[in-house]
């Protein structure tokens, strides 16, 4: 059982390639968060719109995103849509899948945050002559983002980790994809994936700490 | 001029305004007194269109508030309202609370809006709190900030909805002083209040509301000295 000889040196030689992969992982995660937050705001507005069909679209999105495997969402964004003749690169499919997931979870977080803001805040804004949208933009949204900040950080960590699912749609430029390819070439399975895990860990730790510093700067009250 | 003509309003089965007729002239200070559930607060929120009405008409300077064609956002620029719960915007400093609407609604530059906001905040005695966040202020200070916030829009009318009811007793005085100051400056005001001494002091007229009806209206001396209606007498006896 224990006749396996660790060959860290050989694995460590691949570190530069893996770090390049980590950069791609970060790109996917950051893009998926930025677009995901914007979409989640839109979904939140649709749910508040008072229009049943619009609210139903938003609710369906949230329900699928939260109650099906992320793997399914990414798979559908690649092989699912391919059935209709739509072909995305693995990068784009992975981005779409994670963004879809982010938007759904974040929209639900935003809804919870909105419940914590008294309705009288909107009323106060409206009575100063603001439109409904202005009251949302300048009074509700900033407070909502503050309350939802911690869940947003969690989702960002999730987005990083979800990039590992990209291998199922042929993604081989991100950290997990690169590691998998290197493994196929060298068979240093334990070493390579252990290094990848450490890189994932360091990235997510930096994000959590960075978020804490950002929160201290952003939220002055 | 604010003209209220036979206004009726119900919340479900409950009719809270049963045909109110009332005119408030420019420069007048009207206080509205009455028990809870008498409809007095509802009337205020109907005047600036926050609440719809079932029938009748409310005209502000000739504009029908509840007409479909009325631009409420525009109309509300000249009707300031301050609520029992002051509704400070917690994510903004005192100064930013006051500059927000002038900047976003009136399209003022930051500098212009800040000049006006500083003037109004000094006016209500908060000149030294500009950079403070509302959570650091007392209730009375937050309420005065809310008054400055409404005044920064240069409204022609101010509506005050029981603005001292949620305050600790020792903070009521400072807010009433602010209202009194505005009244003396000639602001047209409708104040819904439970502060009888204040009503007697500052009003041109006092209206007594009872179960959705304006039971009596008149000069403060008349209402407090020689009320004509039995319900008014009973109410005043109960609050004394």
TrEMBL record, chain A:
<protein>
    <submittedName>
        <fullName>ABC transporter permease</fullName>
    </submittedName>
</protein>
<keyword id="KW-0812">Transmembrane</keyword>
<feature type="domain" description="ABC transmembrane type-1">
    <location>
        <begin position="22"/>
        <end position="211"/>
    </location>
</feature>
<dbReference type="GO" id="GO:0043190">
    <property type="term" value="C:ATP-binding cassette (ABC) transporter complex"/>
</dbReference>
<comment type="similarity">
    <text>Belongs to the binding-protein-dependent transport system permease family. HisMQ subfamily.</text>
</comment>
<feature type="transmembrane region" description="Helical">
    <location>
        <begin position="192"/>
        <end position="215"/>
    </location>
</feature>
<keyword id="KW-0029">Amino-acid transport</keyword>
<dbReference type="GO" id="GO:0015184">
    <property type="term" value="F:L-cystine transmembrane transporter activity"/>
</dbReference>
<dbReference type="InterPro" id="IPR010065">
    <property type="entry name" value="AA_ABC_transptr_permease_3TM"/>
</dbReference>
<keyword id="KW-1133">Transmembrane helix</keyword>
<dbReference type="InterPro" id="IPR000515">
    <property type="entry name" value="MetI-like"/>
</dbReference>
<keyword id="KW-0472">Membrane</keyword>
<keyword id="KW-1003">Cell membrane</keyword>
<dbReference type="InterPro" id="IPR043429">
    <property type="entry name" value="ArtM/GltK/GlnP/TcyL/YhdX-like"/>
</dbReference>
<feature type="transmembrane region" description="Helical">
    <location>
        <begin position="22"/>
        <end position="46"/>
    </location>
</feature>
<feature type="transmembrane region" description="Helical">
    <location>
        <begin position="147"/>
        <end position="172"/>
    </location>
</feature>
<dbReference type="Pfam" id="PF00528">
    <property type="entry name" value="BPD_transp_1"/>
</dbReference>
<keyword id="KW-0813">Transport</keyword>
<dbReference type="InterPro" id="IPR035906">
    <property type="entry name" value="MetI-like_sf"/>
</dbReference>
From TrEMBL, chain B:
<keyword id="KW-0813">Transport</keyword>
<dbReference type="InterPro" id="IPR030679">
    <property type="entry name" value="ABC_ATPase_HisP-typ"/>
</dbReference>
<keyword id="KW-0547">Nucleotide-binding</keyword>
<dbReference type="InterPro" id="IPR050086">
    <property type="entry name" value="MetN_ABC_transporter-like"/>
</dbReference>
<dbReference type="GO" id="GO:0005524">
    <property type="term" value="F:ATP binding"/>
</dbReference>
<keyword id="KW-0067">ATP-binding</keyword>
<dbReference type="InterPro" id="IPR003439">
    <property type="entry name" value="ABC_transporter-like_ATP-bd"/>
</dbReference>
<protein>
    <submittedName>
        <fullName>Amino acid ABC transporter ATP-binding protein</fullName>
    </submittedName>
</protein>
<dbReference type="GO" id="GO:0016887">
    <property type="term" value="F:ATP hydrolysis activity"/>
</dbReference>
<dbReference type="InterPro" id="IPR017871">
    <property type="entry name" value="ABC_transporter-like_CS"/>
</dbReference>
<dbReference type="GO" id="GO:0005886">
    <property type="term" value="C:plasma membrane"/>
</dbReference>
<keyword id="KW-1003">Cell membrane</keyword>
<dbReference type="InterPro" id="IPR027417">
    <property type="entry name" value="P-loop_NTPase"/>
</dbReference>
<dbReference type="Pfam" id="PF00005">
    <property type="entry name" value="ABC_tran"/>
</dbReference>
<dbReference type="InterPro" id="IPR003593">
    <property type="entry name" value="AAA+_ATPase"/>
</dbReference>
<comment type="similarity">
    <text>Belongs to the ABC transporter superfamily.</text>
</comment>
<feature type="domain" description="ABC transporter">
    <location>
        <begin position="2"/>
        <end position="236"/>
    </location>
</feature>
<keyword id="KW-0029">Amino-acid transport</keyword>
<dbReference type="GO" id="GO:0015424">
    <property type="term" value="F:ABC-type amino acid transporter activity"/>
</dbReference>
<keyword id="KW-0472">Membrane</keyword>
